[in-house]
Amino acid sequence: MKNDRNICILGSTGSIGKQTLETILTYGGFKVRSLAAKSSIDLLEEQIRAFKPESVCVYDEDKASELKSRVADTDVRILSGMEGLIRLASDPDNDLVVTALVGMIGIRPTIAAIEAGCDVALANKETLVTAGHLIMPMLAEKGVRLFPIDSEHSAIFQCLQGYMGPDGSYPYNADIDSILLTASGGPFRGMSYDELKTKTATDALKHPNWSMGSKITIDSASMVNKALEVMEARWLFGVEPDRIRILIQPKSIIHSAVQFKDGSIIAQMGLPDMKLPIRYALYYPLRQPEHGRMLDLLELTGLEFDKPDYETFRGLKLGLDAIRQGGSICTVFNAANEYAVARFLEGKIGFTDIYDIIGECMKRHVNIASPSLEDILRTEEEAYANAKEYCKQL
Ligand code: MG
Predict the structure, then answer these.
(1) What is the pTM of this model?
(2) Ligand 1 center from residue 156 Cα (angstroms)
(3) Which residue ranges make up each domain of the chain?
(4) Which of 116, 151, 222, 323 has the most crowded CB, counting CB atoms within 10 A?
């Protein structure tokens, strides 16, 4: 097994992390060197016993010490906190770091992996949303390749084969007319704003096509997710935001497409299953066989397209405003949403309050055009504080 590559999976107990481990079990080729999670130590313990990593980090300090005593019979080294995440991410023996942590805690470990010169399979949206202007030059400088795990970005990445330069950037993208970023529209597609107001977390967690973690499922229902994906795509593929078009495609069969300047559209299609983008990111440029059901075009009926409803899904409009302004306001958009979604999941606020909180935090922010990492982290704290204060009035 000498050819196995060392993999570090940050966020191994979440939806993407679990599916990454399942993928490795099925297709092999990797030695699980390290794992990290925020606090789910029950599952982490199972993963330690199954995959025998050298090191594991639990972000939550108390949970870390609890896990340490539980796995005292093994050789695993248990780390904790942000420091632990960064240590795992910057291990020089890693060949690939999967960053699937949810939220802004994923930014610094992702940067640490890139600085260590390690290829990254990225599922943490916040990294590019808040720090894309810092990350992209860093990738080129370190010769690090970034493989998107998000289904839309994986689709665009697949459509652009032959367009990626040896350093992972897109020097040949002058041929692109526009990126067609598809969206299912989520469970509330076609509803009015008044209907949205009454929606609970249980309603919002029923995504019609995709099975994902709770944060991203709420973001899909509010369509905030799609704004975050435009932010990611602009950096990842070096395309101006006004050339990224959101296309509603309710069945989630076309995962995104690229229209070239000669009018040709290349789209990536498949069943809605995150395993495909995970496999593509892990084994690029090779494709691994699908052992389950595959997309059968003969079974496909009514592949419809529509424009997004920016009036009802106000979060999308706010997100596009943030994208047009650029700079630290994108961090505000993300952090305010992160705070609001957590409160919504706890049943403390209503669904459309998410939009109000984001809008209010954006209004209060003095934009920084090209924020440093410190500016970004400070902006995050500011947005959290503003969101918290505003929530008290609701
Ligand atoms: Mg997506």
Answers:
(1) 0.94
(2) 11
(3) 5-144, 150-310, 326-394
(4) 222
What pLDDT does 256 receive?
97
pLDDT tens string 62-78: 999 999 999 999 999 99
Other C-beta atoms within 10 Å of 208: how many?
14
Rounded to the nearest whole angstrom, what is the distance from the C-alpha of residue 117 to the centroid of ligand 1? 26
CATH code of the region 326-394? 1.10.1740.10
19-74: pLDDT as tens digits:
999 999 999 999 999 999 999 999 999 999 999 999 999 999 999 999 999 999 99
Cα 72 to ligand 1 centre (Å)? 39
Half-sphere exposure at residue 159, Cβ-oriented, CA atoms within 13 angstroms: 27
CA of 159 to the centre of ligand 1 (A): 16
Across all residues in the chain, what is the average pLDDT?
94
Which positions ≥6 away from 34 have C-beta within 8 Å?
Answer: 8, 9, 53, 54, 55, 56, 57, 88, 91, 94
CA angle 113, 114, 116 (to 5 degrees): 65
For CA atoms 270, 147, 101, 337, the dihedral sign is negative
pLDDT reported for residue 161: 85
How many Å lie between the centroid of ligand 1 and the Cα of residue 152? 5
